[in-house]
Amino acid sequence: MKVKLSGESLALTPLAARVEEVCLNAWPALQEIHYDGWLIRLADGQTRRTNSVNAVGIGSRPLDEKIQYCEAVYRRHALPACFRILSSAPRELEEALDACGYRAEAETSTLFMDFAEHSPPAAFDYAVEFAANAPSGEWMSARMRFHDHNPGERAKIERILQQLALPAVFALVRDAAGDIRSVAKGAVHDGIVCLNMVATDPTSLRRGYSRACVSAILRWAKDDLNAVGACLQVVSTNAPAIRLYQGLGFTHELYRYHYRRPAH
Question: What is the pTM of this model?
Answer without folding.
Answer: 0.92
